[in-house]
Design goal:
The complex is a heterodimer of chains A (429) and B (110).
Chain A (H helix, E strand, L loop, with lengths): L1 E5 L11 E6 L2 E6 L3 H9 L9 E3 L2 E3 L1 H14 L3 E5 L5 H14 L2 E4 L6 H10 L6 H7 L2 E5 L3 H4 L1 H8 L15 E6 L11 E4 L5 H12 L16 H13 L2 E6 L1 H4 L5 H14 L4 E6 L6 H12 L5 E2 L6 E2 L6 H6 L5 E5 L3 H4 L2 H9 L2 E5 L4 H5 L2 E4 L9 E4 L5 E4 L10 H17 L1
Parallel strand pairs in A: 6-7, 6-15, 8-9, 8-11, 9-10, 11-12, 15-16, 16-17
Antiparallel strand pairs in A: 1-2, 2-3, 4-5, 4-17, 7-13, 13-14, 18-19
Helix pairs in contact in A: 2-17, 3-12, 3-17, 4-11, 8-9, 8-11
Chain B lengths: L1 E5 L2 H9 L4 H7 L1 E4 L1 H6 L7 E5 L4 E8 L6 E5 L2 H4 L17 E2 L1 E5 L4
Parallel strand pairs in B: 1-5, 2-4
Antiparallel strand pairs in B: 1-6, 2-5, 3-4, 3-7
Classes of the chains: A alpha/beta (429), B alpha/beta (110).
């Protein structure tokens, strides 16, 4: 059976034009997806062989695993809830309610991908648009610190570089593409211009561009240590000012390098000022399928997009204090609930090591480095394959994940709802 | 050397096959350097290198790639995470890209 218009939840592009073929209870073919999306659909099409849950490595029912998880979390003095980027908004909402009942810290993978973009947004605003506007209007695309050919392949072909749009009828021929990065990634082949910045010198280049578009006459010395010449920056500044609609795509090369939120603040200020000359927008290249969703849901519910602390009974936000890496590295968290994420593989060792020392509960669709160390594992249905719900594309457009395969396991939302009820009972007992 | 971590196609597709899959493990255990730097350290494709930072160390298989001089690249994964510290400078974000590392050439079999 072929199912059309399926939504891929692997990366922030959230492509909604995928066709999957289901045969004998598994996905046998995937059309329109990129290599990453295809691997995601095929790799998650069956987890039926897994136990419903484990406690200390012993297979148990979902109910038993939920009971043990509730006991651990209700007893904890400073629990951390983390992850949430590969699940859907309705499940995220339950996790936030649980954090409030527990007085927990709740953080998502945003803090270790585009948290600095969120901090910059709060400071100076984010002049942005939708990917539809990019496709139909943008004639200058700048990827800065981003490697879409390997991280978001269809960003190039569906939204930003090659698609034909209303005011870009010739597709690629109507656009100029610039890549700014510290190394010539495979994305350089898709660009007309590649500017190779020295590591840690992005802020200096962005600040120089701000000066140039204001008409300030810079000396060559001002950019001498950036790896880019003044002539290259002047050329880029000219292109930025003279395009009809410019788009600056913000990669993790800016957020994870020296400067972090100062880099992204410089981007948003530059783009804001470019709107004095033409139409220009910026957008973080969000990684996980619904990382944008958890930012939105946390912001609706608490006012803050990540790193939220409920220990005083009301939400507080302070990156560096209530963010997962910090709470774990300082060994403050005494229990953890990890949802649809693998922090043991991806967080720095001082932080991930703490997860092995404390009782950790993992909701996961498959084995991961985190499930290997977790005291309690609860197997859930993969969102977008065996569970349906709302996800947010990187441009904050909500889309509906579809269920294309049955699953013997409950969804993240169902497990979190049960966990919330049980924790409430234990807290009130 | 300056180490850059990031997504690679093989790492991205490999993690969907499973983190114990051969593709994923190969992707996250490969360190890329340019030809001149490999020669400087006496390295050939397939040699093992130990990468050390203030926070930890990990062993990778070396491969020549087009990179700027003085820069190495590894795909995100549990090995690259061993090299990153927990300090976030009040941002929540650790220094995950562009940090200094020490390269040690390991004899085969180590």
């Amino acid at each position: 059976m072929e199912i059309d218009n399926v939504v891929c939840a692997f990366c922030g592009c959230v492509c909604d034009d995928i066709t999957v073929t289901v045969e004998e209870g598994r996905i046998s073919e995937v059309k329109n997806a990129c290599t990453l999306g295809r691997a995601w659909f095929l790799g998650h099409s069956s987890n039926a062989h897994r136990p419903s849950g484990t406690v200390n490595g012993r297979p148990v029912s979902t109910e038993e695993a939920v009971e043990e998880a509730a006991r651990i979390l209700a007893q904890a003095r400073y629990p951390l809830i983390f992850g949430l980027t590969s699940t859907y908004c309705e499940a995220q909402k339950e996790a936030i309610a649980l954090a409030e009942v527990l007085g927990a810290c709740i953080d998502c993978c945003t803090s270790v991908c585009h948290g600095p973009s969120g901090i910059a947004l709060q400071g100076v605003g984010e002049p942005t648009c939708t990917l539809g506007e990019v496709k139909n209007r943008a004639d200058l695309i700048i990827y800065w610190g981003s490697n879409p050919a390997e991280s978001h392949p269809r960003h190039l072909t569906r939204y930003a570089v090659t698609p034909k749009g209303l005011f870009t009828p010739r597709g690629r021929k109507d656009r100029r593409v610039v890549l700014v990065d510290v190394r010539p990634t495979p994305s350089a082949r898709a660009a007309d211009i590649f500017l190779q910045v020295k590591p840690g010198k992005d802020f200096e280049c962005l600040w120089a561009l701000r000066a140039l578009i204001k008409g300030i006459d810079l000396e060559e010395d001002a950019v001498a240590d950036t790896g880019v010449t003044l002539a290259q920056l002047k050329d880029l500044a000219d292109r930025m000012q003279s395009c009809r609609f410019g788009m600056l795509c913000v990669g993790q090369g800016l957020t994870q390098s020296r400067g972090k939120q100062m880099n992204t603040t410089a981007v948003f200020l530059l783009v804001r000022e470019l709107n004095g000359f033409t139409k220009f927008a910026a957008m973080p290249m969000r990684g996980h399928g619904n990382v944008t969703g958890i930012d939105n849901v946390l912001a609706w519910q608490t006012g803050y997009p990540f790193g939220v602390n409920f220990s005083r009974g009301y939400p507080r936000f302070n990156p560096g204090e209530f963010t997962a890496v910090d709470v774990l590295t300082r060994q403050e968290a005494d229990a953890a609930l990890i949802i649809a994420s693998d922090p043991v593989a991806n967080l720095p060792r001082p932080a991930s090591g703490r997860l092995s020392q404390i009782p950790t509960v993992a909701l996961e669709t498959r084995e991961s480095e985190t499930t290997k160390i977790a005291k309690v594992v609860i197997t859930t249905a993969p969102a977008g394959i065996s569970a349906e719900g709302t996800v947010y594309r990187m441009d904050n457009v909500p889309l509906r994940l579809r269920k294309v395969l049955p699953s013997p396991f409950p969804s993240d939302e169902e497990v979190l709802s049960r966990l919330l009820e049980r924790v409430k009972e234990l807290k009130h007992a | 050397m300056i180490l850059i971590t990031g997504r690679s196609t093989k790492q991205g597709t490999g993690l969907n096959k499973g983190k114990d899959s051969r593709d994923y493990q190969e992707a996250v255990r490969t360190l890329e350097m340019n030809r001149e730097d490999m020669a400087r350290f006496g390295l050939r494709d397939g040699d093992l290198v130990k990468i050390k930072t203030l926070y930890g160390e990990a062993t990778f298989t070396c491969r020549q790639e087009k990179l700027p001089k003085g820069m190495a690249f590894v795909a995100y994964g549990s090995l690259s995470s061993r090299l990153v510290g927990g300090e976030t400078h009040a941002s929540g974000m650790p220094d995950s890209k562009g940090f200094e590392v020490e390269v040690v050439h390991l004899p085969r079999g180590d």
